Amino acid sequence: MTNKKKRFSLTNQIFFALIAGALTGVILNIVSAGQHIGFINNWLISGLFEIVGKMFISAIRMLVVPLVLTSLICGAAGINDIKKLGRVGGKTLIFYLSTTAIAVTIALIVSYIIDPGIGFQTEIQVAEKIETPVLSIAQTIYSIVPVNPFAAFSEGNMLQVIFFALVFGFSMAALGEKVQNVRTLIEQLNEIVMKMIMVVMATAPFGVFALVANVFAKEGFSAFVPLMKYIICVTVALLIQFSVTYGLALKIFARLSLITFIKKFYSTMLVAFSTASSNATLPVTMETAEKEMGVSNKIASFTLPLGATVNMDGTAIMQGCAVVFISQVYGIDLSLTALLTVVLTATIASIGTAGVPSVGLITLSMVLTQAGLPVEGIALIMGIDRILDMMRTAVNISGDTVVTLIVAKSEGELDESVFNQ
């Protein structure tokens, strides 16, 4: 009972920190408009808030590679039946890719209904052309295998870290009792990492307040006016993906309630919203899935780290909406073939999208290039992407957890009494 009270207390603290941060940011945005109050910008907005917010994100991100490495190795090694390991991985990837393809399709449909780029000032002067690397499908695939695993760890290349961890865990599972000492050591390291996560999460209310206050203080409401239709477009598509796609998936494949899911998961979504990073939120996502929803550690430690890197439904939605928006702004009509290419490319691009803030803008260049659109159009949405990034990250981690619940239910690794409690 004491633990529940503490966890409930932390959840409330995060929620109120989010509200207080937004209100504080809006007030500071209005007050700091006067040139004579520069200290607000220097000492609060760009000073205290930015420092505290970045320290909070850095503190969580410092644990991401150790968490993914140890948890995935333990998860893969813990599934002693090799056939089951392949079965779980196959199910997970199929659901991840399917939900992402559905997400892009929803984004395109909603975009053509709302027409976010129609009526926009087409005489836009793009200050400077943005040179972004264009990733080919082949590059995305072969770069998954690390030439130097230690370089992947230090650089935070999550796809390569995941690949190494899975091969390592698979090998441990195959060797069985011969490597029991190594398995025990990694399990103990995983326990240490989880304890570090608990320590860092105790500071979450302060980090959330600073991050949200900083964003609203800099952007204000006036920044949204010129691109409000685009914001509405992305928001509506995200809501449809969350309520319809995830709701139906939970009901059909796991016979679980979306309402119960929201009640259990909303505090984790607040953390994702404030950090705008799937990777930074991963420790919280795993803890919620296991302790609040009843998913076994064997499944959660396998599917959630994988999803934090390869399953980016919210990012795919942004890319679909951005393609239509930019094409309408520049007066370029997209053929059906081009739209199908966008669905395929955005789905594949999401696999190579690291779970860190705003990285979706980089992979968007790949989608725009494949659709024959000017890459410099990214400059039109950069100013408002931070807020949208926060929303789509919440959808990203929700998709990861929904698929985790479905896979866990199919494998008999879900305690429904915990989920429904």
Written overview of the protein:
It is a single chain. With 421 residues, the protein is mostly helical. The chain is built from 18 helices and no strands. It is globular and about 65 Å long.
Task: Throw out a few tags for this protein.
421 residues, 18 helices, globular, mainly alpha
Summarize the entry for a quick read.
The protein is mainly α and 421 residues long. The protein has helices at residues 2-31, 38-61, 64-78, 82-114, 137-142, 149-155, 158-175, 180-201, 204-219, 228-254, 258-275, 278-291, 297-310, 313-329, 336-351, 360-371, 385-410, 416-419.
How is this fold's topology laid out?
Blueprint lengths: L1 H30 L6 H24 L2 H15 L3 H33 L22 H6 L6 H7 L2 H18 L4 H22 L2 H16 L8 H27 L3 H18 L2 H14 L5 H14 L2 H17 L6 H16 L8 H12 L13 H26 L5 H4 L2
What is the CA-atom radius of gyration, in angstroms? 21 Å
> How much helicity do the residues have?
over 70%
What is the H/E string? HHHHHHHHHHHHHHHHHH
Low-confidence stretches: 1-7, 121-135, 354-358
Helix run count: 18
Main beta-sheet strand count, sense and barrel state: none
Average predicted confidence as pLDDT: 78
The global form is globular
> How far do the termini sit from each other?
13 Å
The chain-level structural class is mainly alpha
The portion of residues forming beta strands comes to under 5%
User: How many distinct beta strands?
Assistant: 0
